[in-house]
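ok so for the tutorial part 2 we go from a plain amino acid sequence to predicted structure tokens. step 1 is just haveing the sequence, like this:
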Amino acid sequence: MTRGLAVLGSAVFFLIAPTTVAGVVPWWISRWRLQAPFFDLQLIRWFGVVLILLGIPVLVETFTRFALQGGGTPAPVAPTQHLVITGPNRYVRNPIYLALVAIVLGQGLILGTQGFWSTARYCGSASTSSFWLMRSRRCVGHLERSTTPIAPTCRAGCHACPALRRRRPDRPRVRVPRPSSPDRGRCVRSHVPAAV
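step 2 — the prediction. this is what the tokens look like for a chain of 196 residues:
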């Protein structure tokens, strides 16, 4: 994917996914009606503003890094060609989820008691369902279908995630050491080269 297509795809996905998750759905739930703040403290509303102001730059920067450094988009239909390990991705596994949860909870704190609990339930259910969906899909499907350079393991599945190991009780739990420099690029448990 060219850099221009990656930027365009990321921009389109940004307008579809985060805008829906952090804008349309919270509005649909709460209609953005202000209610009494928690414990009648206006300071809590300002904490919500801070959460939103911290979440938006992380969201925008992560989308930008996916397009410019990864050569793709955060969308599953056009994934990155290179693993992005800089910026927020260096510290958090999924900074987009973190930023969206911060933005939605910030809206809930601004809206007040009922708005917060409505958005908190929305965040909890969305995070839980997406976590289980991505976990089940990544564990089995990604290992079998992936040919990209960011595949986490070789085809033998020696570095499979814990969920895959739990599904295969016939395999003993073996702690695989990280390959040293002479073995880099080779799978430790089999002769199949690891994807790097």
